[in-house]
Design goal:
184 residues, mainly beta, Jelly Rolls, dTDP-4-dehydrorhamnose 3,5-epimerase, EC 5.1.3.13, RmlC-like, RmlC-like_jellyroll
Length: 184
């Protein structure tokens, strides 16, 4: 569910259909035939306690898909693609295992995950993990201005000392251009 702000272009939020019966629930996570489906190269599970924030990260080669399997988390998003029609669009989407959503995050979108409760979040990656394909900025960078609710998250010291989001935009532009050139 979109909590606040506006969704950047190309970010896809797909509600997953829960099939309940007396045994519990089953829902499909992904089908290759769904529009905009991401070919998955790797699956990750992220488990954290309430109050933790992971990110903000931005990838220039990898598309991520996030969904909550247990608990609730907030996904803060911001469009850092300077040539995007929604450049600087930012928002917060709630991932709730009770009404699951799959959120697809294309390249160039900064994202951070705040755990509202203890939670287990699944991430599908379109490419295998490459530490070089991870840039970052602070979750509360004023230029980024993600419309988080009032939170005081626990973050790694590393994630408090990234360059500013404004500087990050230039890095992202250069990397996206290089990735596009390599594809041609
Ligand atoms: C993503 C990944 C990480 N790692 C290793 C690297 C570190 O030693 C350790 C923790 O990784 P990292 O510090 O990158 O994790 P987060 O900062 O929580 O990042 C995660 O959450 C933010 C929001 C993201 O967007 C990242 O892509 C996502 O995976 O696992 C691996 O071995 N494989 C992997 O696929």
């Amino acid at each position: 569910m979109l909590l606040s702000g506006s969704l950047p272009a190309d970010v896809q939020v797909r509600p997953l259909i829960a099939r309940h019966d007396q045994r519990g629930v089953l829902f499909e996570l992904s089908r290759n035939s769904w529009e905009g489906a991401v070919p998955v190269a790797q699956w990750n599970a992220l488990q954290s306690q309430a109050g933790v924030l992971r990110g903000m990260a931005v990838h220039c080669e990898n598309t991520d898909v996030y969904l909550a399997l247990e608990g609730r988390a907030l996904l803060g998003l911001a469009d850092l693609r300077s040539d995007s029609p929604s450049f600087r669009a930012r928002c917060v989407v709630e991932l709730d295992a009770k009404s699951p959503l799959a959120v697809t995050i294309p390249v160039g979108i900064a994202h951070g995950l705040y755990f509202e409760t203890d939670a287990l979040v699944l991430a599908a990656l379109s490419r295998r993990f490459d530490a070089e394909d991870k840039l970052g900025c602070c979750w509360d960078d004023p230029w980024l201005a993600i419309p988080w609710p009032s939170i005081s998250p626990r973050v790694l010291a590393r994630d408090q000392h990234w360059p500013s989001a404004k500087q990050l935009v230039e890095q992202v532009s250069a990397r996206l251009a290089a990735a596009k050139a390599a594809d041609c």
